[in-house]
Amino acid sequence: MPGRAAGDEALRGRKCVLLSSEDRGGYECLHISYEAAGDSVMAYLLVPDSAAAVRCPAVLMLHDHGARFDIGKEKLVRPAADAPGHIRSSSEQWAEKYFDGIHMADSLAASGYVVLVPDALYWGERSSADAQLWSELVYGDSLQRVAALRKAGGNAGTVGQSGTLRCGDASLMAGRVLSGRMPSGAGEVTGLVRTLKNKIFEGQRTVYDSLSAEGAVWAEKTLQEDIASASFLASLPFVDRERVGAFGFSMGAHRCWLLAAFSGDVKCGAAVCWMMMKRDYDASSPSDLSMRIPRLREEYDFPEIARLTYPRPMLFVSGRQDPLFPERSVAEAFEKMQDIYCELSENSGGRRPASGKNDSCSGECGCLHYGTVGKSENETESGAGRGTYTGICGKTSDEVCTETCVGICDKACDRTCDGSGRRTGMETVFVDGGHHCGLPVQHIVLDFFTRCLN
């Protein structure tokens, strides 16, 4: 779909505005805004050149929290050339820290997927003036940016139902923080940066409370927008609506499994680094406010979301050394999700695999309880290890299992079956490392989408 004219034609009639377009050699990056759940959402839409001839598979990519608010969609997409310099620098730093320097949405688009990446409320182009000021001071030339403080009109004091940011009392404006004068050196700028960061972080409480006062729940609003975004993506004329998936990292993973539970447009989901048992979760941080849906929290433990995502294929990945999601709690949640998919599959006519796991099983089979992936002797040149799994049977990846579960194992070695040879669709994988979505994890995710959407 090369060219702005073609982009305008494809998006016409969908309450969508094309702001700019950029040819990236093999795919096009469109900067767009569209209506979702009564608000205007800013997003990047990446469209492969192949979309001019055939309907393509598509992925809705959902960004993380990370206590970094100046960027949202830019955590997954390389910003457009006309984006502010501090946003491009911030995006690069984030990609290096969490994605091995890869902008994952661009990688998927280069592989032939249409990719939509929206900003959630309070991130990216929907963030506060303070978040952008912080970004200018940290990722621009700080001393040259000090003059911008005179024009900073306050903070996101309240957020309306529509998601519009409103400036509130500027009690922490730079002049007041620094006794009524402008900062004159790097040390004072550093202090201001720290103050702004804390103010923005605590501002999450204001967003939550402001929406609550209007009868809304922040995370429900985000979910409604994500559902609308999935519907928008599936409706595009160059997208095969039967091949639409979702991906998320960290908070984005939480958004992903909620979306898979409540959207009819999403056919599969890949959630990286957000799953555990509810009893082990710290809900006291302001960061939880953007993910808290009280009615769901009261009714379900986190892994019980599997009852709502079934029968969609789902991939959950977690780092063994993730400080936010301890392995013990994640393993219990993974086991519960596997059990739920097996139970529901059994109720729909399949046979459940034998309970328990054989710790001596080193086979890379398709009949997993839960598994681990790490670099091993069969590691590929790209750095992605096929790994060793804890499974039920001991068959290798290209053998037919005729023992415990009569399943057919394949080379991807991370599918589950329900005991009758049919795959239940719940894939749970541990990787070596922490809260991270580096190349090995990206290869696992791409393999999952290749199998589910192609």
From TrEMBL:
InterPro entries per UniProt: AB_hydrolase_fold, FrsA_esterase
Signal sequence bounds: none
Superkingdom per UniProt: Bacteria
Gene3D superfamilies hit by this protein: alpha/beta hydrolase
Protein name: Dienelactone hydrolase domain-containing protein
Species annotation: Candidatus Cryptobacteroides merdavium
